Automatic annotation (TrEMBL):
The lineage of its organism: Eukaryota, Metazoa, Chordata, Craniata, Vertebrata. SUPFAM superfamilies: DNase I-like. One of its GO terms (molecular function) is poly(A)-specific ribonuclease activity. This is Nocturnin. Its cofactor is Mg(2+). It comes from Labrus bergylta (ballan wrasse). Signal peptide: none annotated. Keywords: Biological rhythms, Cytoplasm, Hydrolase, Magnesium, Metal-binding. InterPro entries: CCR4/nocturin_mRNA_transcr, Deadenylase_nocturnin, Endo/exonu/phosph_ase_sf, Endo/exonuclease/phosphatase. GO terms for biological process: circadian rhythm; nucleobase-containing compound metabolic process. Residues 95-374 form the Endonuclease/exonuclease/phosphatase domain. Belongs to the CCR4/nocturin family.
Length: 387
């Protein structure tokens, strides 16, 4: 396993002006651009301001004002679940989302029904932040992030998130003129809810050969319960015909995660009866539920379950779609994104519904209403009571 350990990183002229003081208080990150490369709209410098995180509700309202000319946003409801298991704390909200790399949206992905104005960064960045602020996750797992250093890291740091980012070794974004650097996976967590223990970046292998796909793995301790959680975010190889490759990548990730959680003392979990630290694995797997890599995760000895199966009547079926787009090759409506969790240690308390076909509209995604071709997955999880 090739790993790289990275340190954890510590907005409209009026909208995010109070975020900037946070930047000067955080340790510099590797490859971080100089200050004048920060997004000038989101990260206006305001020297000498008191160090004070902004009010997320106010930022959301101002973001909505900046988007007041767009069609109505998707209104999605949570399904509350109760399976009779007790929980030790208030739920942990998790968001999984492939946000669509800006360079790919503009250059390579060819969304033929999406106007270029709708896919411009000047609009999309507000839509992306609006989605995050609407649901306020404690753990945020993102793929196709190509504006990490100039936008997402500084803004979310100002909102109290710490984070880690792993770029792809050979990101396709780099082949697009005017790109903002490589895309990759990013994992953010709410520092008021979690204490950082460890983090590493993985370059996934297939048959022992390093690939272009990556994962970010972070070990956290819940401040209210003292219990630990190992969180991973990944993005597996895309395209039909690469099913075997995704399966090998998934196996590599599972093997490394199993080694990681089993090597840590079980006392770290805050549950003396636990055999390993609970896992939360979020990602765009580029695989439908019948594919081998999905089956590998579903049948893993780590006892993983997919949170979004909870929305189905039988509890066994994934949503009909997590991505819906129209490219020159035709329309694609598939389920590719998942939130996996350790079912012995964690329970699902609520799951956010997918928008309807009518809400998405005939031109599909992305659109003036929604910034990505993938829909966000959001669920609330709790630690189960010790037996």
């Amino acid at each position: 396993m090739e790993t790289l350990v990275c340190p954890m990183g510590g907005g409209v002229t009026r909208l995010y002006s109070n975020l900037t003081p946070t930047l000067s208080s955080m340790s510099p990150l590797p490859l971080q651009p100089v200050e004048d490369k920060l997004d000038p709209v989101f990260c206006q410098a305001q020297k000498g301001s008191p160090l004070c995180p902004p009010d997320p509700a106010e930022l959301l309202q101002q973001c909505e004002e900046a988007l007041r000319d767009r069609p109505p946003r998707f209104h999605r409801k949570f399904t509350e679940l109760s399976d009779g298991d007790g929980s030790t704390s208030s739920p942990i909200r998790v968001m999984q989302w492939n946000i669509l790399a800006q360079a790919l949206g503009e250059g390579l992905d060819s969304f033929v029904q999406c106007p270029m104005e709708a896919i411009s960064w000047s609009r999309r960045k507000y839509l992306i932040l609006e989605e995050i602020l609407t649901y306020r996750p404690h753990i945020l797992c993102l793929q196709e992030v190509d504006h990490y250093y100039d936008t997402f890291q500084p803004i979310l740091a100002g909102l109290g998130y710490s984070s880690n980012f792993c770029p792809k070794p050979w990101s396709p974004c780099l082949g697009v003129e005017g790109n903002n650097g490589p895309d990759g996976c990013a994992l953010f967590y709410d520092q008021s809810r979690f204490e950082f223990l460890d983090s590493m970046n993985m370059r996934l292998s297939a048959m022992r050969i390093p690939t272009n796909q990556v994962a970010v793995v972070t070990m956290l301790r819940c401040r209210s319960t003292g219990r630990c959680l190992c969180v991973a975010v990944t993005h597996l190889k895309a395209r039909s015909g690469w099913e075997w490759f995704r399966s090998a990548q998934g196996s590599d990730l599972l093997r490394n995660l199993q080694n990681l959680v089993q090597k840590h003392p079980t006392g770290l979990t805050g549950d003396p009866g636990a055999t390993y630290i609970p896992l939360l694995i979020c990602g765009d797997f580029n695989a439908i539920p019948t594919e081998e890599v999905y089956q590998r995760f579903a049948g893993s000895p780590l006892g993983l379950e997919s949170a979004y199966k909870k929305l189905s009547q039988d509890g066994l079926t994934e949503p009909e779609y997590t991505t819906w787009k129209i490219r020159p090759t035709g329309e694609c409506c598939s389920t590719l994104d998942y939130i996996w969790y350790s079912q012995d240690s964690l329970r699902v308390d609520a799951v956010l519904h997918m928008p309807t076909e009518e809400q998405i509209g005939p031109n599909r995604l992305p659109s003036f209403s929604y910034p990505s071709d993938h829909l966000s997955l959001v669920c609330d999880l709790s630690f189960k009571e010790n037996e």
